[in-house]
Amino acid sequence: MKKIVLKRKTFICLWALSSFMLHLLSCKEEDSNVINRPAYDPSKPVVLSAFFPDSGRIRDKVILEGDNFGGDTSLIRVYFNKKQAKVIGSTGKRMYTVVPRLPGDTCTVSVVIGTDSSSYSSLFRYKASTNASTIVGNGSTDYKVGASLAETSLVPRAICVDDKDNIFTFTDVNDGIFLKINELENSVVPLVMNKNTGSGGVPQISEGKIVFPSDNLLDKYHTLDPSEGWALRSKTMVFRQGVRLPSETWKKNMAMCAVDSMYYLLFASSELVRINPKTSAADIVAILPAYNAYGMVFHPHQPNILWLSFSNYNSNAAPAEWNNTICTLDVTADDIAASMTRMNGTSTAGHRDGPLHLSQFNRPMQMFFDPEGNLYVADESNHCIRMINTRDNIVTTVSGKPGTPGFKDGPKEEALFRSPVGINVGRDGTIYVSDNGNARIRKIAFE
Q: Which residues on neighbouring strands pair with residue 84, listed in sequence order?
């Protein structure tokens, strides 16, 4: 009986949508100048009554019902939460819209026409539709660079992606091997064959160049510039005379701040160091209460706010209350260390989606923002990919089954990962994942 009812509801929605589209098309045929379409009346309120369907995925069609919409779509703005949706057409009492990408699991649908803004009382349920697939790697841990992606085996660590969709990663097998991978060109090219660089830190793209710290040389960081044929350049940090140097050489991450154009680097001995990329002048600006931040990235809309992920990678964070946490700090604060705030609910390892302040992670590793402020997290020991919508501070699982390691490509409901440690976002929104435990680099596309 349930199946019959569901099929009937689906048929009714499709019939209504088809009828509405036919109506819009007939309006266009009868009057291409939109002369006879109803106009929005600013002296009257915009009335919202209902919309259907009440759930859907990216690019699904939704009909909004009400009154005083007007027929000029250039005057109408529709939002699913804070994400603007495309308005295809309006009859004045009905609008045809398209679901935007990643507005959030539960959406308030609002309509803005002129100075009139109002929201529907019911909520829209957004269904994230993702598909995971493999780019390179076959599960073998024997390092081999072949003539094609299919012939290459690797164990990738942290990754970065440039604006030409080149993927860069270190490998777990041989220290100092840094690879450039291009899916469209079906190619893998080793760039760095210098063991003095160590195993390398988390690579970042900064002003078109790759930047990463050395984890075995105290005062070194490295760059690779495409204008120089990706040649490795080692830089020496110049600390002020008399400054107590960090006691540990181990450091994994550095990121550039758009506010002051400086690099920020966190040592395993808790020192947060600020580096001038032009002169390499370095200064310790804070002693943080935790270290071993494998994830470290500035917010695209709050460029003074640094987001960090503390797992228990190699050793426990100091103290343990910072394990399995996502934190923020303000690099422009008078007391940077005091500004550090734990954003998720607990340091206890686990998996919980929902409000960020109640969420749980299990060894969160590399993180990366998309341009809209969604923060993607490689949640290593949960074997899945998480997303923090920093506009609403809601955590969702994008792909993978929490606590279930394995390998499987496919949609969100089926995809499996094993100890993902690296993550990045391409120019088209594709998520690139270093699936370390499966010895593969994979991608997650929104469909």
A: 79
pLDDT tens, position by position, 282-331:
999 999 988 878 899 999 999 999 999 998 755 545 568 889 999 999 99
Other beta carbons within 10 Å of 5: 9
100, 126, 152 - which closes a domain: 126
pTM (global) more than 0.85: no
Judgement on whether residues 73 and 178 belong to the same structural domain of the protein:
no
- How many domains in the chain? 2
Q: What is the CB neighbour count within 10 angstroms for residue 4? A: 8
CATH number at residue 254: 2.120.10.30
pLDDT score of 228 more than 50: yes
User: Tokens at residue 163, please?
Assistant: 């604006």
Q: Is 118 found in the same domain as 155?
A: no
Residue 306: how many CA atoms within 13 Å on its side-chain side? 32
CA–CA separation, 159 and 174 (whole Å): 16
